[in-house]
Amino acid sequence: MIVGTAGHIDHGKTSLVKALTGVDTDRLKEEKARGISIELGYAYVPLENGDVLGLIDVPGHEKLVHTMTAGASGIDFALLVIAADDGVMPQTREHLAIVELLGIRRGAIAVTKIDRVDATRLREVHEEVAAFVAASVLRDAPVFDTCAPQASDPGVAALDAHLRAQAVAWRMKRDDGLFRLAVDRVFTLAGQGTIVTGTVVAGNVSVGDTMLLAPGNQPVRVRSIHAQNRPAETGRAGQRCALNLAGIEKSAIERGDWIVDPRLSQASERIDATLTLLADAPHALEHWTPLHVHLGTQHQVAHVALLEGDTLGPGQRARVQLVFERPLCAVPGDRFVVRNAQANRTVGGGHVLDPFAPSRKRRTPERLAWLDAMQTWLDTGSLDALFARAPHGLSRALLERLTGMLASALALPPDTRVIERPGHDALLVAGAAWQTLAERLTGALAQYHERAPDELGPDVSRLRRIAAPLVDDVLWRALVDDAAARGALVKRGPWLHLPGHSVTLDAADQALAAALLPQIEAGRFDPPWVRDLANAHHVPEERVRQLLRKLARQGELFQVVHDLFYHQNVIRELASIAATEARKNAGTVAAAPFRDATGLGRKRAIQLLEFFDRVGYTRFHRGLHLLRTDSRWLDPH
C-alpha cells in the first residue's frame, strides 16, 4: 500500500513521516536550509507479513501544488495532516479536494503539534476538522493526535499501528493489465546508469523486459528493479518501483513521462473526458478556456472544448475535450486535476473517456454515444455497448489501448468474430454487427443484379465500394468468404453473384462464342484484336465487342486493353510467369524480364503488367510491379 501525505505548508508532514519511519524525506540542501519540503520524499516500512508500506511525503506550499499532485497520483491511502495551532488552512482544503478528485477513497487524519496548544484549542480543532471533512471521503476517517518530535508519542504509535493494519488488509491492485509506470523522478547512479522511479499504475514488469519511454516511443530495457525499496525480479501494479534502464540517457527522461508496454505507447494531443468543476470554483468555464492539467505525473496546459452546453458552472459536470499543445499519454479511467490559467487554484478534475479524440465532429450524437459506451465500460467492465457503437468492428490494438488490457483477458461479446490482419493485429467484430454486414453484402449484390442483369456480377473490391466503402478490406473479404462458404453467394473467378443469377447468351451468341473462344485461346500471349475477329467471321465489330464483354463478365475472358481480350487460361499462365519473375527479384516484376520471359514486345508486356495492377494481382510502386502476396484474384471458384 502507498500512503501519501496531504496538508498545508509547515503542518509537520515531513516530521510525522520521520516519526513513523525513521526516514527524513527532505533530501535536498535547500529543503533543509528552508525547513520546508520542495520535492517529493519517499520512505518505506517493512511489515510483519513480508510486504512493505510505502509513504510519499508531498510539499505543502501553494506554489508546489503541481508537485503534490504528481505524488498524489500514485497513492492508495491519504494521510491528511492538520496542525493543531493553525487548524484547517488553504492548502489543507486544496489538498483534500485533489485527493477526492483523484478518486482516493481511504485515509486517516493526523492532528500534529498538539504540544503547542491546550485542551480547549485541541477540542476546537477537532470540531473544525469534523466539520471540514463532513461532506468528504474522509468523513469517517479516524483522527490521531500526534506530537512527532516526542519519542514514543502514543498518537504516532496509534497511527503507525493503524497504517500497518490497513496495509496488511489492503488488496493489491490487479496486475493483469498492460504495464504503465508514471515517472516522478529520474537520476543516475555510478556504475548503474539511468534510474527512474514511480508508481506502477497497471500491469507488471520483469528484469530483462523491453518497454517504451512515452511519449517518444524510445525502447528501454529493464536491467534491474527495486520494488517498495527492495531488490526484485518483478514490479507490479500498486508498488513504487525504481527501474534501472539500459539504452537511454537521463537527459532523455523527465517527470511526467511514462514507461509503458509498447502496446500503450501511443500519445495524443486531444483527450475526451468528464470534467467536474468544484463548487467553490470562482468562475464558470467557457469554450476554449485554458487550464493547467495534472494527469499522472504529467503537467500540461490545455484548452477546454465543451462537448455539452456553452458553459460549465461551479459544481457542474460535463463532457469536454482537452486540447494540448504536446502529445500526452493516457488510458480511459485515468483521473486528472485541473487548475486555473494562473496555476494558483485547483478548480476541478475528472477522468479520461477516450484518449484518442477527433478534432472534427466531436459533438455529434454518434460521438457522444461512443463516449457513453466508454463510460459504461468504465462503470461496469462490459464491452457490449462499445461494440454496439462499432458497426465495422474494433481493431485489437485499439481495444487494448482503450482498456489497458490484453484482448485475450477481456470478456468480449458473445459470437465475436476475430479477423486476423497483417502486422499482428486483428479486427474484432461482434456477432450482431457481422450479421448486419453480411445482410448488407447480399442485399447490395441483389441490387447490382437488378441494375445490370446482363452482367455476371462485380468483383470483391467494387462490391465493397458500392455497399460499404468504409469497411476494412480484410473484414470485407472475410465476409465474402463466409458468404461463399454458406452458399449465400457464388465466386466465379474474380466475380461475385447470387446463386440464382447467371448471364445467358442467346443461340446466335452461343454459336459465335463457340467460334471465337478457341481462336482467342489459340492466340496465346498475342490474341487477335476485335477487328481481326470481326473480319475473320464476317460480323460487325460492335457485335463482337459486346459479346466478348459479356464473356468477360462471365469470367471466360479478360480485357487487357480496349478491344484486346485474353482467354482466362492464358491469363493464368501469364500470371504464373509474373509470379516466377517476382520470386527471382524480391517480390517485384519489372517490364524487361517479363517481356523476355513471355517473348512479347515491351509495349504489350507493360500493358499486361498494368492490367495485373488494375485487378489487384500486383501493385505499381516506383517503377516496379510488386506481387501482392495476399491477392486472391486468381483463386479457383
UniProtKB/TrEMBL annotation:
Pfam families: Beta-barrel_SelB (PF25461), GTP_EFTU (PF00009), GTP_EFTU_D2 (PF03144), WHD_2nd_SelB (PF09106), WHD_2nd_SelB_bact (PF21214), WHD_3rd_SelB (PF09107). InterPro entries: Beta-barrel_SelB, EF-Tu_GTPase, EFTu-like_2, Elong_fac_SelB-wing-hlx_typ-2, G_TR_CS, P-loop_NTPase, SelB_WHD4, T_Tr_GTP-bd_dom. This is Selenocysteine-specific elongation factor. GO terms for cellular component: cytoplasm. It comes from Paraburkholderia antibiotica. The keyword GTP-binding applies. GO terms for biological process: selenocysteine incorporation. It comes from the Bacteria. NCBIfam families: selB. Keywords: Cytoplasm, Elongation factor, GTP-binding, Nucleotide-binding, Protein biosynthesis. The keyword Zinc-finger does not apply. It is found in: Cytoplasm. Residues 1-173 form the Tr-type G domain. Its main location: cytoplasm. One of its GO terms (molecular function) is translation elongation factor activity. Translation factor necessary for the incorporation of selenocysteine into proteins. It probably replaces EF-Tu for the insertion of selenocysteine directed by the UGA codon. SelB binds GTP and GDP.
